[in-house]
Amino acid sequence: MPRKARTSSEFRDALLKHLTYTMGKDPEHAQFFDWRMALSHAIRDRMVDHWVASTRKTYEQDGKRVYYLSMEFLIGRLLEDGIFNLDMVEEVKEALDHFGMDMRTILNDEPDAALGNGGLGRLAACFLDSLSTIGCPAMGYGIRYENGLFKQSFVDGRQVESPETWLQEPHPWEFERPEVRFTLGFGGDVIYENGKTLWRPAELIQAEAFDTPIIGWQGKWANTLRLWAGRAVDPFDLGLFNAGDFAAAAEHEALARTISRVLYPEDSNEAGKELRLKQEFFFSAASIRDILRRFDSQHDDIRMLPKKVAIQLNDTHPAIAGPEMLRILHDERGLSFEDALEIVHGCMNYTNHTLLPEALERWDERLFGRLLPRHLQIIDRIDDAHYKAHPHRTLSARSDGQVKMGELSFIVANRVNGVSALHTDLMKKTVFRELHELHPDRIVNETNGVTPRRWLHSCNPGLSRLITDTIGEGWVDDLEQLERLEPLIGDKAWIERFETVKSDNKQALASYVAQTHGVKLNTEAMFDVQIKRMHEYKRQHLNILEAIAHWQEIKDNPNGDWTPRVKIFAGKAAQGYHFAKDIIRLINDVAKLVNADAATRDYLQVIFLPNYNVTLAERLIPAADLSEQISTAGKEASGTGNMKFALNGALTVGTLDGANVEIRERVGPENFFLFGMLADEVMQRRMIHDHAQQAINADPRLARALNALRDGTFSPEDPGRYTHIADNLTWSDYFLVCSDFSDYWRAQREVDEAYRNPEKWAEMAALNVARSGWFSSDRTIRGYMCDIWGAESLLA
Ligand code: 26Q
């Protein structure tokens, strides 16, 4: 249906109908919640038309389908996304206006769907958006966690976690599919019967599907996100109940549900946890069965599978999907092991997101064998087959008493990809060096991207409007059109409009921070933002040490001509990651002292905003002047926040790490503040046993800042609080904070200098916008479709 064909009064009626018949309220008594639900249902109705049409077309065309298996989908809010993708902003505003409701207030009532930890989960969500925008027939598979990523608050500056409960109120976007259920097993034995090998699991559980429509730009296409929830096979034991044991009667169900209860809140692998492995098998096995069932409904020849199905493993978390598919084809359907392996290999692909050794998944083979005895045997056979083909090597998925999910994924996959040029290059040279030598064509690069619908059009309406006024609306699904802004950057009137947008966004953020946290930010100052998971390799401590040194220097000369800055941090630390949590506390303690210092507060403010999530990122990124991307070179696989900032007109201070390298190439080195060692220099530097002390001795500013950690400046009531951080940086400093400090300081002073020339700064920022079009996840997905999946768009 043409999108403007329905009049706004029609939409108003639809809204009122849902308020009345779905929510059972009359407008007089409706709460924000009721309005949000009514609006969500009215919007959802519009999505469903497109969704049904897309599903029908996918079946009719019978092309190759893409399945994206991911333990995480960090979606954020869906209502605003839906309204923007359906291009219904004005209609919705008008309708709500009619009832005296404000759209912003309603949208802000929605909780985030936080089914992910960070970059990997958010990437999966951007990919879903792009797959639908492009019209690629695809489906996302994951877990319907009842509790998403924990909520973070601060008590005396310390991180405190509490459960996140997004499903406590009704979730209007999902469709429960009680008819789509699979029974899965764990444990038990492997038996041999009539020449066949069969697995007889001891414990059974059901996976039930919940579907969410994912609508693309202007509703031209919609795919499905299918999330699995754990259910008991035999939910309620009436015998026990009648015998009076009420708790035991419901126990099955409670146990079954724990499998989809919580998201593991780690962004790197801590020692193998049984429940985590169960979750991985649970959703991978359910997804594989669903994929095979759908294939079978349209085809009889299983050998056609690689022509019709491409499966993408989002990191190794769903790697067990490979052995499970093999088990079904070989054990259950009777294909030879070799044929089964060839089919599986033809379908599977694997994306690696990290080179950090501690984040590569490995399972103790005893634990693995206890839960998945048959899969352990299958993994051995995969190793055997690989060894037969490449006898001169002994690389294997199972060795040293462990099951190595990275090796397993590599061996099973048809294509293996990294997420930025540098990362892919390092994969070939480090973790997968030997496997890459055996399979030199297997590794490809697909540099990450972000969806411009959410990360520009919807989160930054001011900039979106300016761009559309200048070059039309085509950029929203063809982001490289932003290049056409470049000629305007010399135009004084245009650049003034560009500056006004940024300054309005800063005002908006400042009023939000004033309202929610009671802190008044200086909007004349540069907004310098570092937002991401807390991790030593991301080096939030480098940033705060520089802030401390800067503060000390301002105090030495309070009448100096300083460039005012507001340093904004946000990010969660894994519960068990004590060092990261101490960095949060340090930043909060520094903020407390510095913000209260009358001598410096006009020049330097520091704030750590609690509970970083997608929605907070949507507020912060449009308001940023400076983006901090300062990881130790070689450690950040790609980064995607870096792209969002550049696209919203922030300049980057950053190392040559991950996608920073490609961002700098594209926006131009003169529009990027580079500092720090390169990846190979980092490796060299670590060979010097006293690298940190050398750096400290050479830089009195660094020495003084570290001293302030030691002498209790920021924790007078507990002077020893930060000694261990200073000690760590002085005596070990694996992430080379000290070694990069001086160059970081230099880059920051160049940033100060540049900010003092507002016209020049605005030009540089606008060039960042104009040249960031390549970082659209639409471009990334086209790359996967062409290089990895061999899939085609079904849009005319
Ligand atoms: C593994 C085992 C057990 C428990 C948890 C995990 C686990 C969970 C999440 C391991 C890793 C993750 C997340 C990794 C991640 O977010 N990586 C980021 O991926 C982004 C998208 O490619 C990149 O841009 C980032 O550079 C990378 O850090």
UniProtKB/TrEMBL annotation:
<comment type="similarity">
    <text>Belongs to the glycogen phosphorylase family.</text>
</comment>
<dbReference type="GO" id="GO:0008184">
    <property type="term" value="F:glycogen phosphorylase activity"/>
</dbReference>
<keyword id="KW-0663">Pyridoxal phosphate</keyword>
<comment type="function">
    <text>Allosteric enzyme that catalyzes the rate-limiting step in glycogen catabolism, the phosphorolytic cleavage of glycogen to produce glucose-1-phosphate, and plays a central role in maintaining cellular and organismal glucose homeostasis.</text>
</comment>
<keyword id="KW-0808">Transferase</keyword>
<dbReference type="InterPro" id="IPR035090">
    <property type="entry name" value="Pyridoxal_P_attach_site"/>
</dbReference>
<keyword id="KW-0119">Carbohydrate metabolism</keyword>
<keyword id="KW-0963">Cytoplasm</keyword>
<dbReference type="InterPro" id="IPR011833">
    <property type="entry name" value="Glycg_phsphrylas"/>
</dbReference>
<keyword id="KW-0021">Allosteric enzyme</keyword>
<keyword id="KW-0328">Glycosyltransferase</keyword>
<dbReference type="GO" id="GO:0030170">
    <property type="term" value="F:pyridoxal phosphate binding"/>
</dbReference>
<protein>
    <recommendedName>
        <fullName>Alpha-1,4 glucan phosphorylase</fullName>
        <ecNumber>2.4.1.1</ecNumber>
    </recommendedName>
</protein>
<dbReference type="Pfam" id="PF00343">
    <property type="entry name" value="Phosphorylase"/>
</dbReference>
<comment type="function">
    <text>Phosphorylase is an important allosteric enzyme in carbohydrate metabolism. Enzymes from different sources differ in their regulatory mechanisms and in their natural substrates. However, all known phosphorylases share catalytic and structural properties.</text>
</comment>
<dbReference type="InterPro" id="IPR000811">
    <property type="entry name" value="Glyco_trans_35"/>
</dbReference>
<feature type="modified residue" description="N6-(pyridoxal phosphate)lysine">
    <location>
        <position position="644"/>
    </location>
</feature>
<dbReference type="GO" id="GO:0005737">
    <property type="term" value="C:cytoplasm"/>
</dbReference>
<dbReference type="GO" id="GO:0005980">
    <property type="term" value="P:glycogen catabolic process"/>
</dbReference>
